[in-house]
Amino acid sequence: MAITDLRGKKTFITGAGSGIGRASAVAAARAGAELYLTDIDETSLQATVDELGASVAQFAAFDVSDYDAVTAFAGTVHDAVGSLDIVMNVAGIAAWGTVENLEHRHWKSMIDVNLMGPIHVMENFLPPMVKAGRGGHLVNVSSAAGLIPLPWHAAYSASKYGLRGASEVLRYDLKRHGIGVSLVVPGGVKTGLVNTVEIAGVDREDPRVQKLQHRFEQRAVEPEKVADAIITGIVKNRYLVYSSNDIRFGYWWARKFAPPYEFVLQKANDQFGKLLRT
Questions:
Q1: DSSP character for 189?
Q2: Percentage of residues in the chain with pLDDT exceeding 90?
Q3: Is 2 contained in some domain?
Q4: What secondary structure, in 3-state letters, does 55-118 show?
Q5: Are 183 and 240 in contact (CB under 8 A)?
Q6: 251 a catalytic residue
Q7: Please, which residues bridge with residue 189 across strands?
Q8: In a 10 Å sphere around its CB, with 0-12 CB exposed, 13-18 middle and 19+ buried, how is residue 131 labelled?
């Protein structure tokens, strides 16, 4: 039921054209997975597909915030091969700023892509996994900003905390079906977002801003490190997947009493599960 080996496992990855998504596709292919890929950027997605060759079974470029597009691709996949084994929600965008500088479009885009995008994927791919009864694994890429209230991250954190909340519930809901859940909480990662993230009300050319960005880049890890952590998280059925020890340590302070908390949540979920059987 649990995924202990990716060989031959049908694996869907969003955001596969660049960054963590692309690195995850490469790592999964190396582990022997059968890939189903998407990215909003058709050119970068095609480059990933060309590199991975026969490991890719199906792919299509679309925006995960478009429910109809996600549903259409899911239908194509399910008609061809049935339910999948692993689903990775990696695609995401970022915008930072103080509340007086953030615009409605910032808040909306964060929720549409970072939260509703994964929800669209889960709506379409998880029920067939449950029905198939073979188990599987769900990976949701949140962020350190989904664990810790970082400055200027209100809109971004709204989406990432939301994804964390859904993942934590599903961790317990899906256990009875043999489907593991991993919540990935990377800190700084050297992806295109480092240079393209919009900071509302801030001049990116300001030397002080560039100095902060340089500090961020010094602490950031390569996307391949995050991808390796994700693959390990799947095969070891880890819920929280870290890519840097500073985030692990920071969140430890907030969750010193995690074991009894998790025990009570699982027992409560088991009790609710009995209602389904009656």
A1: B
A2: 69
A3: no
A4: HEEEEEECCCCCHHHHHHHHHHHHHHHCCCCEEEECCCCCEECCCCCCCHHHHHHHHHHHHHHH
A5: yes
A6: no
A7: 221
A8: exposed
β-partners of residue 76 are none
State how far Cα 197 lies from the chain centre.
18
**pTM of the predicted protein model:** 0.87
Q: In what order do the strands lie in the sheet with 136-141?
A: 56-61, 34-39, 10-13, 86-89, 136-141, 179-184, 240-241
The DSSP secondary-structure symbol of 8 reads T
199 part of a folded domain = yes
Q: Is 272 exposed, middle or buried (0-12, 13-18, 19+ CB in 10 A)?
A: exposed
Cα separation, 128 vs 243, in Å, equals 30
At 263 the pLDDT is: 72
Segment 185-232, tens digit of pLDDT: 998 887 766 556 777 777 666 676 666 655 656 567 899 999 999 999
Contact 177, 170 (CB under 8 A): no
* CATH classification of the domain holding 137: 3.40.50.720
**8 A C-beta contact, residue 178 and residue 131:** no
The active-site residue out of 36, 67, 156, 251 is 156
Q: Which domain holds residue 54?
A: 10-277
Number of domains in the chain: 1
Q: What is the pLDDT of residues 133-144, one digit of tens each?
A: 999 999 999 999
In a domain? residue 226? yes
- pLDDT for 23 beyond 70: yes
Q: What is the pLDDT of residue 199?
A: 77
User: Is residue 4 a part of any domain in this protein?
Assistant: no
Strands 34-39 and 56-61: parallel
DSSP one-letter code for 206: S
Which residues fall within 8 angstroms of residue 188, CB to CB, at 6 or more apart? Answer: 194, 216, 217, 219, 220, 221, 244
